[in-house]
């Protein structure tokens, strides 16, 4: 997939701490009474690739549809780029590319002709530059060789890439993508992930929803974890990884004495459960803990150092497993 330099759109809000998307108390209660999105406070930093991660049914699509003004929130407010929504939608939305349940493409038309049609009906697009922009968008997603093929002959990955090409008919500062790799085979998934990384590298902020932790780990700089409509964690991925600090687990028939020893060593987050005592190791080498237990005469039947992975952290936050397939 080629990624020619694309004119970088001017950033209207730049610098440290700038946010491309913010929501405050964003809520959607459907007529059925179901609260699909519950007082969501998102903060998507400008320039980030933000993974909006949650199991199926957790409210991701509803949130994205509210962000784009396709669903009316029950409560709360949100901003895209430098504008308030929906008040500033006319000024802001042309700078936002969105992929939500795929645009309606005509199966009997080629990819190229589908893009021509979409560009022609966009009243804000300049017809004089149409051919050039369509060519660049197709090239950007690696579909130039298949541009003249009919849409119905496209693989799922090609269809998704054409959807992305449609969002790239003009420079975008922000891309909002709902499960962009859903239903794709491994090759299509790789293609779309590479493209997302390319787009981010050229300066766009990307907000993408996914139920795949591996996707977040591969391409995102930030993550927001949503569970039953509520945001349970948000921040730079590196920071969340920081919460995967190693712990010691000690098995002993004198747990109270083991607790006293690890406290003496100033270990934190000490937990005792029956014969099992665990604590965050911090920077202390684990052999110091072993030596201290021996010194204190604590009988040790089992000792191990455990490093939880990101999935365990998220399962701890949501009480639910994530689909970890890549
Ligand atoms: N129009 C609607 N009317 C009533 N309930 C709805 C409507 N749309 C979505 N819901 C419900 O709201 C909840 C959140 O759905 P949503 O599609 O936003 O979740 P999601 O995280 O995107 O899940 P998925 O990945 O499966 O699409 C679900 O329980 C869903 O059944």
From TrEMBL:
Signal peptide range: none
Top-level taxon in the UniProt lineage: Bacteria
Record has Transport as a keyword: yes
Keyword Ribosomal protein in record: no
InterPro entries in alphabetical order: AAA+_ATPase, ABC_transporter-like_ATP-bd, ABC_transporter-like_CS, P-loop_NTPase
Gene Ontology MF annotations: ATP binding; ATP hydrolysis activity
Membrane-crossing segments per the record: none
Chain ranges of the ABC transporter domain: 21-253
Annotated protein name in UniProt: ABC-2 type transport system ATP-binding protein
Source species: Cryptosporangium aurantiacum
Lineage: Bacteria, Bacillati, Actinomycetota, Actinomycetes, Cryptosporangiales
């Amino acid at each position: 997939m080629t990624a020619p330099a694309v004119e970088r759109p001017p950033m209207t809000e730049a610098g440290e701490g700038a946010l491309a998307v913010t929501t405050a108390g964003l809520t959607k209660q459907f007529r059925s009474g179901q609260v699909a999105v519950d007082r969501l406070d998102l903060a998507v930093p400008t320039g980030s690739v933000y993974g909006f991660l949650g199991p199926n049914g957790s409210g991701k699509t509803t949130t994205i549809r509210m962000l784009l003004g396709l669903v009316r929130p029950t409560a709360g407010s949100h901003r895209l780029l430098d504008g308030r929504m929906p008040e500033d939608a006319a000024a802001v939305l042309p700078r936002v590319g969105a992929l939500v349940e795929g645009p309606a493409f005509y199966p009997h038309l080629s990819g190229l002709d589908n893009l021509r049609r979409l560009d022609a009906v966009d009243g804000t697009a300049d017809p004089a530059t149409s051919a050039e922009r369509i060519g660049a968008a197709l090239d950007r997603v690696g579909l130039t060789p298949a541009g003249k093929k009919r849409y119905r002959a496209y693989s799922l990955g090609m269809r998704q890439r054409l959807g992305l090409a449609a969002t790239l008919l003009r420079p975008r500062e922000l891309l909002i993508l709902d499960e962009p790799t859903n239903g794709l085979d491994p090759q299509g998934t790789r293609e779309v992930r590479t493209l997302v990384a390319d787009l981010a590298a050229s300066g766009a902020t990307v907000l993408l929803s996914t139920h795949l932790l591996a996707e977040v780990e591969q391409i995102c700089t930030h993550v927001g974890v949503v569970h039953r409509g509520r945001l349970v964690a948000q921040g730079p991925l590196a920071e969340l990884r920081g919460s995967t600090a190693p712990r010691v687990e000690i098995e002993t028939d004198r747990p109270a004495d083991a607790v006293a020893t690890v406290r003496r060593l100033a270990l934190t987050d000490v937990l005792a459960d029956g014969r099992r005592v665990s604590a965050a190791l911090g920077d202390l080498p684990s052999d110091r803990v072993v030596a201290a237990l021996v010194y204190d005469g604590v009988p040790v039947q089992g000792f191990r150092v455990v490093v939880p992975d990101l999935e365990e952290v998220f399962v701890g936050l949501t009480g639910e497993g994530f689909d970890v397939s890549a």
